[in-house]
Structures are given as structure tokens and as C-alpha cells.
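#struct-help
A.M.: can someone run this one for me? Single chain, 320 residues.
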Amino acid sequence: MSRPRGQYLIAALVLAVFLVLPWGLSGYWVRVLSSIFMYAALAQSINFMAGFTGYADFGNVVFFGIGAYTTTLLMTRAEIPFVVAFLAGGCVAALAASVVGVPLLRLRGHYFAIATLGVLEAVREITTNVAFFGGGMGITLPVVAEAPEPFFRLIYYAMLAAVFAYTAIAWWLTRSRFGYALRTIKSDEEAAGVIGIPATRYKVTVWAISAFCTGLVGGLYAYWLKYIEPPFVFDIMISVKAWIMMLLGGAGTLLGPIAGAFLLELLSVTIWGQFLRGHMLILGAVIMLTVLFMPAGFMDLVRQRFSLAAVVANLRRNRI
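D.P.: on it. C-alpha cells below:
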């Protein structure tokens, strides 16, 4: 069997397992897996910008919140069906990224990262203080007539579909001319300009793609919770968590963000259950050790078949 065919077979088997799982798991584990899929989708969205282009979008959660609020407002104010409102949320997030991307993506490094945080804070303050957005009281979405179990399975499958769709985009970026151009920008933006790559236009485009994907997840999250307020959907910790997942799995890789989401979320659930008080300290120590042993991410260690020499080289690189 050829290698590509074997990879497709494995992907099909994994998909089949995840399609069947919610019918045999308890409601708790269905929600845990839905949360893992949500963060995997967010980590993959960040990967488009940070992993392939090298731009640290620390305020990426702003598009998550924009998607959530657009979906909620369309459903509550205009009584638009969820599917239409959900897609509109992604489009509004992409539009917002395109508008702010033209000036912001002329910045680089920590200047761009700080600017994205500034945008996040500005949008959060607007939604908190403007009555149309519900202010600090938030907004409640219409109650779904469907029974809880089928509804949670619906969310599970929607989040799973997002993971596969976003991974397909990442696969395209690893093989397309557009993706090669993004990696050239990441390696040397000046050189990319010299060879004729319109860096700003490409960066704005990939940021809009990332924002669209993030906005869709935000809209789905709002539909899942049935209630949103600014601290919930514009929470910087959502971005931080997704960033850690991407780095744990491997930035710029195809499956790294997904592996990082499963590693961090399952580890967090396990530690929370065993060490209720000190779980954050233990989790932080585990993440720190993981970064020291696997600075290029878990997928890099998998490629090297968990070589002891690779681990030793990582320790030497960090001068430990």
C-alpha cells in the first residue's frame, strides 16, 4: 500500500471512530470531546497565521467574539435561522480582519502582537458599553426545542466537521503556491518582496481566512452555550490556550494543533480530577517540561520516532 493511500485510510478510520463515539459515551465525555474539537479548530485557525506566516496574532479571540455576537444578534434581533447567522458571523469576522489587516499587517513581530491585543480590548469595551450589544448583561439566545442529548451530539459533530475542514485548509496551505508564498514571507519578508510576492495582500488574505474560521467557531460556541457576554467570548485565555495547543503540537504542521488540543485538554481534565487545588501549578509545570523536551512540538518528536538523541539535543539547545 502506498504511503498517501495508507494516510487516507488512517484518516477515514479515525473519522469513522469519532462519528460513532458520541453514541456510546456519556454526556460528560461528549462535551469534553466537543471542547477538544473546538480548541483544535481554534488552534488550527491560529496556525494559518502564526505557523505558516509567522505573525503572532495574540488577539485572535476577537474574531471568536465577533462571530459569537454576530450570530447571536442576527438570531435574537432579526430572528434569522442559526445556519444563516452562523455563516454571517464568519463573514463579518473575515471582513473585520480584512479592514484592520491592511494597517496592522504592515507591523511586524511584537508590534503586531501588541496591536492585535489593542484591537481585542477596543472591541470588548464597545460590546460592554453599547446597549445594542447587550452591554455587561450579555444576551440570551433562543431556547432550542430539541432534547439535550441530540443537541449536544449536533454540537459535537459540528465541531468535528470544523476540525476536518480547517485541517483540509492547512493541507492545502502545505501544497499550494499560496502556502509556499506564506512560508517565504515567514522566512524572509524582504526577500519575498524582491521575488514579487505581494506580502501585505497575502497576509491580509490568510488573516481573513483565519478570522472566518475562528468566527464560525465563535458562532457555534454561542449557539452551544445559549448565553454570551463580553468576558466569555472576548476572553484572552481562549487565545492563550489555543496558542499553547498549537505550540505543543507543532506550529506550521498539519496535525500539530489537533495533537496539542488533545494533549492539553485531556491532561487538564485528568489533572483537574486528581488535583483540584494545585492543578494549574501542575499543568504549568507539565507544559514547561514539554516545551523544554519538545521545542518544535509533539509532531516533530513523532517524526523522529521519539528518539532519545532528539530529546538530548533539545536539552543541549536549551543549555540544560
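A.M.: thanks! Strands lie at 139-140, 227-228.
D.P.: also worth noting: The two ends are 43 Å apart (CA to CA).
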